Amino acid sequence: MGIIKSKLSLFSTGSSTTTTGGFSISVADSLAIEAPVVNLASGNVTSSSGPDVIIGSGVSDVTYVYIKYKTAAAGSPVLVLSTVTGTQNFSDLTAGEAIFIPVKGGVGLRVTSSDTNAITYEFGYWTKNV
Fold first, then answer.
1. What domains can you pick out in the chain, each with its CATH number?
2. Over the chain (130 residues), what is each successive 10-residue block's mean pLDDT?
3. CB 47: neighbour CB atoms within 10 A?
4. Does the pTM exceed 0.85?
């Protein structure tokens, strides 16, 4: 058993075209985890080679997942995140963007490129200790 310490901070000074008053949000938490885990790994995916399954639909526990779009071999493909069960696309990442989410047990998570250009991404996952 281990602990992940997470912290999210969002800040904006505002502008006439966005939130005029600005905002500041800061959230911190400690998440209890257990095996199986992948602390950090990388992958490459295209629309013809993918999707790459990060968390299989047979995993029954909630799993915390981190994914970051590192680079593309060419063009500007989008890294598309979707469920394994039901195949619902739910997030698009562009170069440099990252996401950290809890994935519901039995649903799974996979990634693919929006076109045939390869995307290099990094990921990690940690099983929630219940």
1. 33-128 (2.60.120.1010)
2. 93 76 91 95 93 95 97 96 94 98 97 96 96
3. 16
4. yes
